[in-house]
Fold this protein.
Amino acid sequence: MPNLTALSPLGFTAPHKVVVSAYTISEVTDRAMASITARKGSASAVKTILTKILNQSAPEVGGYCAGEVEAFWTGQGQWMLTAPFDDHEDIVASFVGIFKGKASLTEQTDGWCRFAIAGQDIDRLCSLLCNIDMRTLMAGKANRTSIEHIGCFLVRIADECLHIIAPRSSAGSLYHAISAAAKSVRF
Amino acid sequence: MTQTRRLTGGLIDRQRPLNFEFDGRKYTGYQGDTLASALLANGVQLMGRSFKYHRPRGPFSSGSEEPNAIVELREGARKEPNTRATTIELYDELIATSQNRWPSLGFDMMAVNDLFSNFLTAGFYYKTFMWPAAFWEKLYEPIIRRAAGLGKASLEPDPDCYDKGFLHCDLLIIGGGPAGLAAALVAGRAGLDVILADEDFLIGGRLNQESYSLDDQAGSVFAALRYEELTSLPNVRIMTRTTVIGAFDHGIYGMVERVADHMKVPADGQPRQRLWRVYSQSALLCAGATERSIAFENNDRPGIMLAGAMRAFANRWATAVGDRIAIFANNDDAHRTAHDLHQLGVEIAAVIDSRPEAPANDSFEVLMASEVVNTHGRLGLNSIDVKTPQGLRQIQVSGLGVSGGWNPNIHLTCHQRGRPKWDAGLSAFVPSVDLPKALFVAGAANGQMTTAAAIQDAVTTAMKIATDCGRKPTSLAIPKTSDESASITPFWYVTGTERGWVDQQNDVTVKDIKLAHQENFRSVEHLKRYTTLGMATDQGKTSNVLGLAIMAHTAGQSIPDTGTTIYRPPYSPTAIGVFAGRSRDMDFRPIRKTPSHKWAEEQGAVFVEVGMWYRAQWFPQDGETHWRQSVDREVATTRSSVGVCDVTTLGKIDVQGSDAAAFLNKIYCNGFAKVDVGKTRYGLMLREDGIAMDDGTAARLAEDHFVVTTTTANAVGVYRHMEFARQVLWPDLDVQLISTTESWAQYAVAGPHARNLLRKIVDAEFDISNEAFPFMACGAITVCGGLRARLFRISFSGELAYEIAVPTRYGDAMMRALVEAGEEFGGCAYGTEALGVMRIEKGHATSNELNGTTTALNLGMGRMVSTRKDSIGAVLSRRDGLVADDALKLVGFKPRRDSDSVPAGSHLMTKGSPVDAAHDQGYVTSACYSPTLGHHIAIGFLKSGDQRLGEIIRLVSPLTNIEHDVEVVSAHFVDPEGDKLRA
Amino acid sequence: MIINHPLLGPRDAAEFTYLGDAGLIDRPDGMAENALPAFIDYGYLRDNVAGNHRELWFHEQGDRSWLVVTRHTVTHEITNVELASDVARKRGRSK
C-alpha cells in the first residue's frame, strides 16, 4: 500500500456529504472507472464481452446498467465501465485481458468527480441545471451535456437518485452550481 | 392621504392594505394594486416627464405597453430606472421615484425644452449644435449628455441572484387570457405536457378587466375556475409573472420569470428572476391585443389614456382616473368604458365618436362625426375642445379615454423575420402566413377580436395541435358571453394636428412624421430611425401602427404599401442580470483547480488564470515583497538545485490502436512512425494551411499506446482536431482517443538534483540512472511504496528534468512528498512565472510564438516538416508566401545597456531606416528578466534573423515611447548545447 | 437551433462546435503531383450559398461525434443530419 493520503475531488480525506435544502449531495469516491472503446471491426465483439462482464445486455444509446460492475454508453462503440475501487484499483489491468485486444481501455478513475444527488424532485432540480429533457432520463438512463459550462454525464440511478459525473478539477464549481439550484428550486 | 378615487369592487384585497412612497410622499394601496392603480386611487395622475420636452405625463395604459409612467423603483443597490408603474406589483414599503425631471415632477426646469420644440424636432441633432465646431466638445456635448438618457442606474453591485433553467413541453401557450385558458384546458385534458405563461401576476388577461359575463359568471370568476382546474392537472405548468421574450429557431422560446420582483427582498436562496429556455414541440400565441391611440393636439396630458386601460383601472383595480370623464374613439369597443364607469358612478361627460354613426344610449351623450381637437390642463387634464357638426364645444373633464382601435399582439410571429399582413376590416396587422415552424396563433392575437370568437379560435387550434401530437382531445363548449362588437372605422389623426403625440416616450409628434416625409425619410425603416418612433423602452407598442398610418396618409399610399417595421426579442425590457444568470463574479466560468491547489494555497501562492485553470504563478516566501524576488529565486534555485512545478494542466490525450503511430504520423509534421516503445518525441502540429498550431510530446508506452501532450490553452482544440482527423479524414484507421488530462496529476522535477530527489520517491526496483532512463525515456513505475505512476524524462526548463504522473487523488500527497524530498537539496516549488523565465532562457516556443501566423520555418523548425509523408499542413507550408527568402526567424534579443528591458510587443527596425510599418523587420514575442544571465532578454521574430546574429538593431515601441538598441543573438541563451538535459 | 443527432435525437446547437463546409471531408492527397493547387482550392475556395449548406459540427458536449448537417442558411431549417464518418466513407475516405 502506498504511504500517501488520497483526497476526494472536493479536497477531503473522506467523501464529503452535505444536505442542501431537500437534497443530499454526496461524493462517490469508491468506484474505479475506465473507458472502453471498440477497435476497428470489433464493435459487436466488444458488446458481447461487455454483456458477459455485466451479466446483462451492454447499454445502448442513452443506456446505463447498474450492478457491481456498471456501464453507461458514451459514444458509438464506446462506454464507461466502473467497478469497486478497492479490488479494481488498476481497473485497466483488471479488464484488459477479457477484451483480448478488441478494445482500447483507458484509466479514467481520477479524471472525474461523481456526485450522488438524492431527493424527491430530481427532475425539477435538473431543470435549473441542464437542458436534458428529464422526461427521457428515467432510472436506467444516462446522458451527457453541460451544467454551468462544465461537461457532465448524468446517470439516473433511481427515481430519487441521480449521479452527476464531471471533470474532477471543476468539482468545486459543480458542487456550487448544484447546491445553488437545490436552494433555489423550491421557489 | 386617503384613496379619493377608489371605486367599489375590483380584484384588490381591501383586507391587506399596503404602505408605499412615491417622490417622498406616503400613500396606501391594497394587495392586488399596481403602483399606477394605487397612485391613481390616491388622486395622483402625474407620474413622469417625457424624454425630450419634459412634458407632464400620467399612465397611458394599464400594462407592459406603458410609455409614460416609468419610474425609478427601489433605492440603493436594487434601484432600477424606467420601470413601468402599470406593471409594478405593489408590495409593503415599496419606494419609487419619478425620473427625468429637476428639481421635481411638479416643477421641472427642463420643461423649457418644450418652449424650444421648434428646434428639437426629429433629427435635430443632425442640424443643430454644428457651429462653432469648438463648442461641440466643450459646451454642446456635455449639456446633451446631462440631458440625455432616461432614469439613473444604481452603480452598486446587484445583490440579487438570477437563475437559468430549461423546460421541455409539448405545447407552450403564450398568454393566459380567455384564449390561452381555453387552449390549455383542451390540451391539458388531452394529456399534453403544457406550459401556460402569462406576464401578469393574475391569470385571466382581459377577463379580469371587463364587466361582461361568461356563462353568467363574472370574467374574473370564470378565469379563476379555469385556472383551478388547470392547476389540478399534473401535466400543466402555469407560470404567472412570466414573459415569453422571444421566439427562436426550432421551437426554442425564451421566458423570463419574475420570481421575486414583487417582494421587498428575495428570501434566502431565492433568485430574483429566472431565464427559461423552453424547448417546445408546438407553441400557441394567445397574447391578445393592445389598444392604440389617435393623434390630436395635446393628446398626451396626465388624465388622457387608452379607453381600455381606463376601464381596466375601474373594473380590476377599482380606480377612477378622474371624477368626470369623456371618451374619444373610432370604434364600438371604447363605448364599453363609458358604460362600465357610468355603472360605477363616474360622471360621463360624453362619448366623442369620429364615425358618422355610433351606438347611442340613454345614460350619456354620444357625439357622432366629432373629434377632440385640443386639450387643456398642464399638470392634469381639465378640459377638452370638441369639434362637432354643430360647431366647437369645450367640455370640462379630468379624464379622457382614447381608442383608435386594437392591434393584435403579433410580435413573436415576427421574430424570425415574418412580415405581418394588413387586415382592412380590422384596420390592423394580423399574423403573416409565414409563421415560425410549429407556432400557431389564436384569439385576439389572431384577429379574433370578440371573446367568443377568441375562445373558439383557441379551442379549434388546440384541438388540431393535440391531434397532431397523436392524442384524442375533447372539444370545449364556448361560453355564452354578452355580445360585443368589434366594429371600427379607421381614424388616425385630426386634420391639422401638429403637436399631436404619436410616440409619447420618445416625444415623436405628427409634425415629426410630416417632417420625415418632407425630408424624404419615407420608408418605415427610415421613419423609425429618423424620428426615433418606436425606439423607446415601450418599443412603440401603442404608437408604431399609428405612426406608419400617418406616414401612409401623408405619402398618399395604402398602409399595406407602406409596410411595417417588424419586431425582435425581447418582447419587453429584460434585465441583463437575468441573461447572465449565475455566470458572474467568481462564478463567471467554472474554476479548474490543479491537484496541488490546496497545498499551493497553504503556501500563500499567487495564482494566475490560464483559461479556466488556476495555476500558481509564484510562491512568495517570508521577506519577499516583490514578485521579481520570488521568481528570480525560484529560477535560481531550480537551475542550481531542484524545483518542482505542477504541470497537470497541459493536455494529455491517450491514443491507442494498431494504427496509433500511423495516425500520429498524419497529425504531426515530423516523423512518428519509428518511435521506440519507452521513448518520447517532441511533435509539432500544423494547421492545414501550414501555420503552426500546437506542440507537445508523444510518449510511446506500448506498440499500440501513446500519450500525447498539448499546451494548456490548446488542449480542447487539439482534441477536437484529432477527432476530426480520426472520424472524418481517416475513418478507417484503427485508432481510439480519449482525454486523460484530469486523470493524472503531473509534476515537473527539474534541476541538477532532479534525479537525486526522485530516487527518494521512485520505488527502488526502478533504475532511473542516466543509462537506464536516458533523456526522452518514458515508462510505468511505482512510487512511495507501490503507487502506480508514469515517468517521462522531458525538459521544458532545459535542466535535467522529469515529469512524474500519479492518479490525481494522490496529487496533493505527491506534491507534498516531492517538495519535502527536495528540501534536503535546498530545492523549492516554482510557478508559471519561473517556468516562463526558464523556457525563454532556453528559447522554447509557446503560444506567444505559435500565435496563429507563424510557421515551422519561422520557429526554426523548417526541417522538421517531413517531405516524405503526407501530414496535415505539410503541403501548404511550402507555398511561396510562407517560404520567402527573408522569412521571419525566431531569434533572441539582448539589450545593449544592462538596465534596458526588451518589452514583448516591441518592433524591430534596421538601424538608420525610417521607423514605420513598411520598414518593419519583426517583433518581440516573449521577454523577461533572466536571473541566470543578470539582465533582460527576449525572443521574437526577425526577417532572416538566423543570418543576422550579432547585428545591432533598433527596438521601438512608439506607443510607450521606447526606442533603444538591442543585439540579435541565438534564442538559446542558456546551455545551447543541451548538456544539462542529457546529464 | 436544434440538431437532430442520428443517435441521440434532438440536441441544442449550443452543445456543438461548428467547423465549416463539409467540403473539408475531401482532403486531397498530400503526396500527389498537383498537391499544392489542390490544397489551395481545398483550403480557400468556398461556395457561399443562400440555401442548403452541408457543414461539419462537432458534438463537444455530447458523444464527441462529428456530424454533417444540411442547414438552410437563410431559414436555418435543418433537413438532414448524418454521422460524418459515414459520409466520409461514402465519399471514399476509407484507407
About this structure: Chain A has a mean pLDDT of 97. Residues 26 and 88 of chain A are 22 Å apart (CA to CA). The first strand of chain A starts at residue 17 and ends at 20.
